User: Fold this.
Amino acid sequence: MKGVTQQSLAEQTGISLAMLGMIERGTRVPTEEQLVRIADVLAISLAEFK
Assistant:
């Protein structure tokens, strides 16, 4: 939706591509720090994750 690839998001957040995939699939729960980094890159609020 934001036009960001998983690869780009991984590079910009410092979160591995594998970890992002697990978070996206719901097989891994991200830490609050990871959520903040993802939200910052996507320019959204943490509330939008809910």
User: Anything to note?
Assistant: The CA atoms of residues 21 and 27 lie 9 Å apart. Residues 32-42 form the longest helix (11 residues). The chain has three helices and no strands. The radius of gyration is 10 Å.
